[in-house]
Amino acid sequence: MGNWVLVQTPELTMLAATLVLAFVFLFLPAAGRTMANGLDWNAGPRDGSPARPGIITQRLERAQANMWETLPLFIGAVLIAHVTDANGPLTFWGTQAFFWARLVYIPLYAFGVPFVRSIVWLIAMGGLVAIFAALFT
């Protein structure tokens, strides 16, 4: 085995922060389902039909599904940029935009804020496009 040197770039830092944020996306709706069905249901075999969670939990579930759609693309793009040494202004600002927009997206979706939520989603997608662009320039 060769000696590997880990170079911590701002892009990798934002990737790590985004993975922590993904835990938030994972646990918020899970907590809502536990509140709706009780700890015994959550810890048990989950037989039978669960109670329908509240509207905020349902929104958090949709926000989570949306995050899972784009997270693999973000991870792949950031890692490819790192490995190919394509990091630069596009990847820096792209990772920043993706993370911060996704952070803001959670409460906007949970509280049903229209239009602004869509704009924030577009900002996150713009960040992802910026990272992709860096791979081909």
| General form | elongated
Largest sheet: none
Elements, N to C (H/E): HHHHH
Number of helices in the DSSP assignment: 5
Rounded to an integer in angstroms, the radius of gyration calculated over CA atoms is 18 Å
Helix content: over 70%
Strand content: under 5%
End-to-end distance, in Å?
A: 32 Å
Mean pLDDT: 93
Structural class: mainly alpha
Low-pLDDT sequence parts: none
- Total strands: 0
Structural notes for this entry:
The protein is mostly helical. The chain has helices spanning 10-37, 39-43, 55-83, 89-110, 116-135. 29% of the residues are buried. The model has no long low-confidence stretch (mean pLDDT 93).
SSE blueprint and pairings:
Layout: H1 10-37, H2 39-43, H3 55-83, H4 89-110, H5 116-135
Helix pairs in contact: 1-3, 1-4, 3-4, 3-5, 4-5
State the main characteristics:
single chain, 137 residues, mainly alpha, elongated
Compose a concise summary of this entry.
By secondary structure, the protein is mainly alpha-helical.
